[in-house]
Amino acid sequence: xxxxxxxxxxxxxxxxxxxxxxxxxxxxxxxxxxxxxxxxxxxxxxxxxxxxxxxxxxxxxxxxxxxxxxxxxxxxxxxxxxxxxxxxxxxxxxxxxxxxxxxxxxxxxxxxxxxxxxxxxxxxxxxxxxxxxxxxxxxxxxxxxxxxxxxxxxxxxxxxxxxxxxxxxxxxxxxxxxxxxxxxxxxxxxxxxxxxxxxxxx
Length: 202
Hints:
single chain; about 45% helix
């Protein structure tokens, strides 16, 4: 999702901003002066992180800016490590609203012919809270979907970024392109409750 799409669900965005210390108004779904000021502060913080940790490819940039600030920093460090190792890795997905997550969940179900990509409905994924991103491996400019290409990445980055978790370590649904910032709880339900109340979860 892009930053502009993030802004279209005002209540979702207010929760995102409040839980990360940018918004101190009511969670009312109305875009007013406080939401506008919080949005400007979030954008300024994102620009500051970008200046400190470097610019990457346009696709990755459009997804990194949807993450919470701590995850933005981790994502930029993640890409820097892999770029230095000669890898062409891009971030293809960042934060998703609940509605976007629900649409993704429907893939591969109820006659939908697209491949199944997630077991998480809206509010059940760390993508919904700005904590997670999915990567793509590229070689000679072309996307590579082979699992083995993704399985070598964690050993390159996780020792240097212990605050990250890799979806390939999951038991029930291995998600090799998925990385996420550790939160205050391993329970997504707990994180959702904090997020929806505008309370810090990192």
